[in-house]
Design a protein that fits this description.
By secondary structure, the chain is an alpha/beta fold. It has 16 helices and 16 strands. Residues 90-104 and 163-171 have low confidence and may be disordered. Bound molecules: zinc ion.
Length: 455
């Protein structure tokens, strides 16, 4: 059996990746993923990114299942190839052990995502169950870990290693949760298709300082912003105005990150309408909103996530003539576009208006991100002075959750610039390799001969 014509359109951006192809996409549609989360707040970005990949069946174990029915309906509207339901016990409809036996072949893995206490107690409990490949992400506020276990012994050693530690600050899941979700979905894809290298050692990420390292035994997950600093950030963000240019693969998670952080004033600019080929990555849209302007579809979803957000939409193309007028209303721009000419335009307009902007790009399994603050650091043309846009290939391969990772990074960058907390990617370039689950942050410098910001 092959993919239907509709599925070929839906997953076009995956199918053209040689490591996936039609066979890989079909395998994903037959895969089952078990997801363990505390509640729907920590589940939703993960459920969306698994559905974006085209995982056929998601079975959820929730400690608190309030609101799950409506989330399940939304996820199945986002991808009608995906079914999502409770794993066991949660809906009191009986024993699912038979279900678990039935679905184990062909591709089967599980994800545990949440705060430290939850993950620790759950992992210990799962030791008594049949072992299957497992992805674990512990996260809280800006920090988190990611580790993938392909054998039972390493999973056991994780449980022993963490058993002696202290309780974490139980502040609400913050940006790190969405970021973790996209990373977990990528690991899950690699497990299901047996491609790339999963992260067997523990990755420790810190979005506040943009640090990514291999965790050792002294891993410190316990340092957090205190209540006063959190309130301060919240206050600064509630006064800020942010414009997101492009409401697609990058703009979707970036906007989710901003509304999760309680930003009150958000602008969205995009000329396109929702298409089926968007739905392998653009988590703000859905099947029932195909044909609707993207900015309207996004506004609908964002208000569902946070009814307090005020959204101003621009269903227009960004051009020299309107860029200055629109940008001048905002404190910061998130460049979530998919082409080089728009990036040059955003760069030059931001430079002339002295507006900071967070930039990211994606291709296949890779992502880049950097943050540009006029007169304080490099600009986009310092990095790429003469991109010959005539020679760009039309290859638009992109793995669904990769823009998820990068868009949440852009949201983190925007929050730091607006609040003055943490270390940003100013004069730095972040490189993400999803195939090997690796992050690198390198220094970049302003180019004195830059056509935009040079002397
Ligand atoms: Zn420059």
């Amino acid at each position: 059996m092959s993919l239907t014509e509709e599925q070929k359109k839906h997953y076009a951006r995956h199918i053209i990746i040689p490591e996936i192809g039609q066979q890989g996409q079909k395998k994903l549609l037959y895969s089952t993923v078990l997801v363990y989360c505390e509640d729907i707040n920590s589940l939703w970005p993960l459920a969306y990114y698994l559905a974006a990949l085209g995982i056929g069946k998601i079975l959820c174990d929730l400690k608190d299942n309030r609101g799950a029915g409506s989330l399940f309906a939304d996820v199945m509207d986002f991808n009608n190839d995906t079914s999502i339901d409770y794993l066991k016990g949660n809906d009191n409809s009986g024993d699912f052990s038979e279900e678990k036996e039935r679905v184990i072949p062909p591709s089967f893995c599980r994800i545990i995502l949440g705060n430290y206490d939850y993950v620790k107690s759950l992992a210990a409990k799962l030791l008594n169950e049949k072992y299957i490949p497992t992805v674990i992400s512990v996260n809280n506020q800006w920090k988190g870990t990611l580790q993938t276990f392909t054998d039972e012994d390493s999973f056991k050693s994780f449980v022993t290693l963490t058993a002696g530690n202290n309780t974490l600050d139980s502040g609400q899941p913050f940006l790190a949760n969405g970021f973790s979700a996209a990373l977990c979905a990528i690991e899950c894809l690699k497990l299901c298709l047996n491609i790339g290298n999963v992260r067997k050692d523990m990755l420790l990420f810190d979005l506040l300082n943009m640090e990514f390292e291999q965790a050792d035994s002294k891993v410190n997950l316990f340092e957090f912003l205190d209540e006063a600093d959190r309130t301060d950030i919240k206050q600064k963000l509630s006064d800020a105005k942010v414009l997101i240019v492009g409401v697609g693969g990058l703009g979707s998670p970036a906007a989710c990150g901003m509304v999760m952080a309680d930003i009150k004033n958000l602008g969205l600019l995009d000329l396109d309408d929702v298409e089926i080929s968007n739905l392998n990555r653009q988590i703000l849209h859905s099947f029932s909103r195909i044909g609707m302007p993207k900015v309207s579809s996004a506004e609908f979803m964002l208000k569902k996530l946070n009814p307090k957000v005020s959204v101003k939409t621009y269903s227009t193309e960004l051009e020299w003539d309107n860029a200055s007028e629109i940008f001048s209303e905002y404190d910061l721009i998130i460049a979530a576009v998919d082409n080089i000419p728009s990036r040059y335009l955003i760069n030059d307009a931001c430079y002339s208006l002295n507006k900071p902007f967070a930039e990211a790009g994606i291709y296949k399994f890779n992502g880049t991100a950097t943050t540009l603050v006029p007169n304080q650091g490099h600009c986009y043309r310092c990095l790429y002075p003469n991109f010959d846009t005539g020679n760009l290939s039309s290859d638009k391969s992109v793995l669904g959750p990769v823009p998820g990772v990068m868009g949440f990074i852009q949201a983190a960058e925007a929050m730091k610039i607006l609040s003055g907390f943490g270390k940003t990617l100013k004069n730095k370039l972040l490189l993400f390799d999803a195939f090997d689950m690796d992050f690198n942050v390198i220094d970049v410098a302003r180019n004195p001969k830059c056509p935009t910001c040079g002397e």
